[in-house]
Amino acid sequence: MLDKVQVGLIGTSWWTEGFYIPSLKSHSDAVIVAICGRNQAKAEALAHKHNIPHVFTDYTKMLNSAMLDAVVIATPDDLHFPMTMKSLEKGLHVICEKAMALSAKDARIMLEKAESRGVKHMIMFTNRWFPHFQYLKHLIDGGYVGEIYQGHFHHLTPAPSSGDYCWYYDPERSQGVLSVVGSHIIDLARLLIGDIKRISASLSTFIERPGKEGNKIIGAPDSALLLLEFENGSHGSIHLGAVNLVAKGLSRTGICIELYGSEGSIELSSNATSQPPTAELRGIQIGEKEAKRLKIPDEYFKEINPEVPFEVFLKHSVGPRLFIDAIVNDISIEPNFYDGYKVQQVIDAAIESYSTGQTVSVENV
Q1: Which among 40, 68, 81, 262 could disulfide-bond with 146, CB atoms 3.0 to 4.6 Å apart, if both were Cys?
Q2: What pLDDT, in 10s, does the model give residues 74-126?
């Protein structure tokens, strides 16, 4: 058991500063001892601002420093595999950002390596921990809708500027909307309904974006429609879009989930990044005349402000805080690399389905 978990951060993005640093600093058993970024000035500025003592521009040197117990890999998707594998070779506990890898094959190798080293491993599917998703999971597990017949998942986000390079839509670095938001939604579908058995997909790239050098590229998809059959026989769909004008007042802005079953129906609409954030649950069960709003019980918020849902990562044992708790107390973690691997299987199947024009089965391993 460790008294203090010494953590190194790889990546200096807004997400590292706005999410990982505050969450880790809020845990009394964690200390951020190093940060690594390709831009030395940016890394040094971030380190100075947050009192992080060591700065690196080469992540292998940070991993070789022998000062770390754990590492957070918050970099573009194409770097997740090499960085995770080298971290695991050093016996470090690892948080890896979603999407886990660029292929299920690589994700499986990462999972098997982590398991063989006996370390804690986590994929950062943040939506799982927000109170409204936690309560929705509670209702589904408690039989609110009974046996689920259909589940529909919908996530629309604003379009990035078409004139700027964005690694999210560079096919050498990412799988576009499937990775950026699709990985989150696929994880929620698995969490609420179960593993996906078969998939048929249509993918599109509507917005032309430049490559890293300003050259023309065929971008990764920015829109996706997935038709699903789950292992338990449920039917479903996932609709993803990153080309949309989304705004407060539109009924399907952000994440929308619709679940229909033998005992009832339930809908969740959520936008954690709107100002103020929104989350509404509505449901109806057999025998009732109309759907009603389902209030999220206060126990799901505890010390956090309902209008600041990201506070859950500063006060509850979730996300990076759960990762530290798992290391200190030797407890299991979900979502972990297995969950990341299962999501990557679905992404791979969607890409294969679109390229072949056929329905693709997802291997249940």
Answers
A1: 262
A2: 999 999 999 999 999 999 999 999 999 999 999 999 999 999 999 999 999 99
The number of domains in the chain is: 2
3-class secondary structure for 150-190?
EEEEEEEEECCCCCCCCHHHCCCCCCCHHHHHHHHHHHHHH
pLDDT of 1 strictly over 60: no
Average pLDDT over residues 160-175: 86
What pTM was estimated for this model as a whole? 0.95
Shared domain check, 190 and 146: yes
In a domain, 365, yes or no: no
> Angle, nearest 10°, between helix axes 131-141 and 183-192?
30
pLDDT of residue 103: 97
* DSSP-assigned beta bridge partners for residue 236: 151, 228
Residues 159 and 113 grouped into a single domain: no
Residue 117's domain spans which residues?
A: 5-126+316-333
Model pLDDT, residue 273: 67
Cα-based distances in Å from 158 to 99, 177, 240, 243, 246:
19, 11, 11, 6, 6
- The predicted model gives 167-195 an average pLDDT of 96
Residues 6 or more apart whose Cβ sits within 8 Å of residue 133: 127, 188, 268, 270
Q: Across the beta sheet with 70-73, what order do the strands follow?
A: 54-56, 30-36, 5-10, 70-73, 93-96, 121-123
Give the CATH number, domain containing residue 72: 3.40.50.720
- Residue 281 is assigned to a structural domain of this protein: yes
